[in-house]
Amino acid sequence: MAGDAERNQGRQGDGRSRHGRQNSSGRAGVETIVVTDSLRELSQKIGYEFKDASLLETAMRHSSWTAENEGFESNERLEFLGDSLIGFVVADIMYRRHPDFDEGKLTDLRKIVVNSNALSRVAQDLDLGSHVLLGRGEQAGGGRAKTSILANALEAVFGAVYLDSDTRRAYEVVTKLLSEAIDDALGRLGQLDAKSQLQELAARLDRALPEYRVRDEGPDHAKVFFAEVFIGEELMGSGSGKSKKSAEEQAAYAACSILQENPKPA
Higher model confidence: residue 125 or residue 249? Predict the structure, then answer.
């Protein structure tokens, strides 16, 4: 049996021969699409059979791949659409499930599900990393395991499902694939106040106050923020998200767990 690396490279290497070029509408030409074993496998994992296979193809094209292969559309537009779809579905579910929650709590619940870390975990369960088409540099840099790439690919898949079907069917697919994250959201509600919790914990343990270091990647319309939190010179946690605040909250939540287990400086 071929190793994962060899299989992944094969999926990427034959990308041009089986990926339709854009037509005048910006969509890949359906007539050039061949449904490969990789696409069939991915459709089965998603639980949805595409009528227009070019949509799923496009959802797997990272911008680093299209930069090296002219005439092909990246997954960024589908990602934009899928992000909006996920936000709507999760908001609708939380609204119906928690009639006693105010707008603030509902927003917090949605943030727990709709963030890069949570979405990348779902993408990992689907093994999206082995299907994504990456440029040579991104692949060499471990792009198949990057949180932002996996989360964005999952959003693009949801956008593709929506365009291929309708709102009802897309709602069902999103709900099915995010069901565990949605069900766990209530128990993780305290995570969103993690920065305050971390500061109080550090003070109680006579440790230095937390210091956050944040960087961002990507174009202005699709930035991903990465945060690290230090106590003294010790890195205590890291996180990512589509806003600086979200990334810092993720990092603080991770740091709280580590600090509780190891209260004394390393």
Answer: 125
The predicted pLDDT at position 191 comes to 58
The three-state secondary structure class of 212 is: strand
Catalytic residue numbers read 83, 155
Looking at residue 20, the DSSP 8-state letter turns out to be P
Cβ-Cβ contacts under 8 Å for 146 (sequence gap 6 or more): none
The amino acid sitting at 53 is A
Cβ neighbors of 237 (< 8 A, separation 6 or more) are: 228, 229, 250, 251, 252, 253, 254, 255, 256, 257, 258
- Of 239, 11, 2, the C-alpha closest to 127 is 11
Segment (H or E) for 94: helix 76-97
Distance CA 65, CA 15 (A): 9
Q: What residues contact 171, with CB distance under 8 A and at least 6 apart? A: 89, 92
Domain ranges of the chain: 4-184, 190-261
At the top level of CATH, the class of 190-261 is alpha beta
CA atoms within 13 A on the CB side of 127: 12
DSSP string, 181-241: HHHHTGGGGGGGGHHHHHHHHHHHTTPPPEEEEEEEES-GGG-EEEEEEEETTEEEEEEEE
For residue 173, give the nearest of 262, 47, 53 by alpha carbon: 47
Taking a C-beta distance cutoff of 8 angstroms, is the pair 28, 19 a contact?
A: yes
Q: Is the pTM of this model over 0.85?
A: no
Q: Which of 12-26, 34-48, 114-128, 189-203 has the lowest mean pLDDT?
A: 12-26
The identity of residue 101, as a single letter, is F
Each residue of 67-117: pLDDT tens digit? 999 999 999 999 999 999 999 999 999 999 999 998 988 988 898 899 888
The CATH code of the domain at 4-184 is 1.10.1520.10
